[in-house]
Amino acid sequence: MKTVTISTLNKLKAAGEKFSCLTAYDATFSHQISSTGIEVILIGDSMGMVLQGHNSTLPVSVDDIAYHTQCVARGNQGALIMADMPFMSNASIEQLLLNAGKLMQAGAHMVKIEGEAWLAEGITELTRRGIPVCAHLGLTPQMVNQFGGYKVQGKTEAAAQAIISASQQLVDAGASVILLECVPTEVGRLVTEAVNVPVIGIGAGPYTDGQVLVLHDMLGITVGHTAKFVKNFMADARSIPEALSQYHQAVKAGTFPAEEHCFS
Ligand code: KIV
Ligand code: NA
């Protein structure tokens, strides 16, 4: 399989073609996902829930992400590897740089950071040092205690404008990708039109350039509540590789997400 880079994603956006992303935490799934042609693999701090059994992402450490990034990198067949910067790994610019450096040395091709417009300075410092950044906006799960729960973001006109303008500012600061979580479909569309970098959505509607899901969610094995934006791709598949392929095809064809997975 051809190697996916930031330039590949930019070309797909320019051509109006969709791309897909899934989380992975180990070499076997990394191999399966990348062999399917899924363009991006995320070592998400969702591992706090699906691997470690916590009820939030807050307990995940940089060492946890680094270890799983090494595992994913060994199995990877050409996907772009994105690693999450966990809770408080950016307590200062210096810590942000050193921790992001660790994840790159573990095998990541880029890092993802949760926040708002204030991320700009850190993003500029990272990109100066050769670390591409995905800025994760909207519902940022590390802020769950501040938000008072996992809630759709950008619902008012002012909140929507804040997300759109933060996206633009962070792209100006050097962000290579924007990821939007749990925002109304219209906000997903406006951000995707406003910025000249690829936008990945999860619960952000069908108009973003790419889609991402947590692996365990799309395999239908997550314990407890699953979000509205999740589709169980095992429901119509006979094997995990087939479910991965159906997810990838559905994103490419624009049939996932459907109306029922979106917020208005
Ligand atoms: O940690 C994660 O899996 C994520 C995705 C849900 C975007 O951040
Ligand atoms: Na995450």
The residue ranges in which pLDDT falls below 50 over 5 or more consecutive positions are none
Strand order of the largest sheet: 1-2-3-4-5-6-7-8
What share of residues are in beta strands?
A: 5-15%
Task: State the end-to-end CA separation.
Answer: 37 Å
The count of helical stretches stands at 11
- Helix fraction bin: 40-55%
Rg, rounded, reads 17 Å
CATH hierarchy class name:
Alpha Beta
Give the integer mean of the pLDDT values.
98
Shape: globular
Q: How many structural domains?
A: 1
What is the count of β-strands?
Answer: 8
Structural class: alpha/beta
CATH topology: TIM Barrel
CATH architecture: Alpha-Beta Barrel
Largest sheet geometry: 8 strands, parallel, barrel
What is the H-and-E element order? HEHEHHEHEHEHHEHEEHH
Q: What is the name of the CATH superfamily?
A: Phosphoenolpyruvate-binding domains
The bound ligands are:
3-methyl-2-oxobutanoic acid, sodium ion
GO molecular function, one term: methyltransferase activity
Family: Belongs to the PanB family.
Organism: Oceanospirillum multiglobuliferum
Function: Catalyzes the reversible reaction in which hydroxymethyl group from 5,10-methylenetetrahydrofolate is transferred onto alpha-ketoisovalerate to form ketopantoate.
What are the key terms here?
264 residues; alpha/beta; TIM Barrel; eight-stranded parallel β-barrel; 41% helix; globular; binds 3-methyl-2-oxobutanoic acid; binds sodium ion
Word description of this protein:
- Belongs to the PanB family.
- InterPro entries: Pantoate_hydroxy_MeTrfase (IPR003700), Pyrv/PenolPyrv_kinase-like_dom (IPR015813), Pyrv_kinase-like_dom_sf (IPR040442).
- Homodecamer; pentamer of dimers.
- α4 packs parallel to α5.
- It is built from eleven helices and eight strands.
- It starts with 5 loop residues before the first helix and ends in an 11-residue tail after the last helix.
- It is 41% helix and 14% strand.
- It has one domain: Phosphoenolpyruvate-binding domains (TIM Barrel), CATH 3.20.20.60.
- The protein is globular.
- It has an eight-stranded parallel beta barrel, surrounded by eight helices.
- It is α/β, with parallel strands linked by helices.
- The model has no long low-confidence stretch (mean pLDDT 98).
- Bound molecules: 3-methyl-2-oxobutanoic acid and sodium ion.
- 3-methyl-2-oxobutanoic acid binds next to β6.
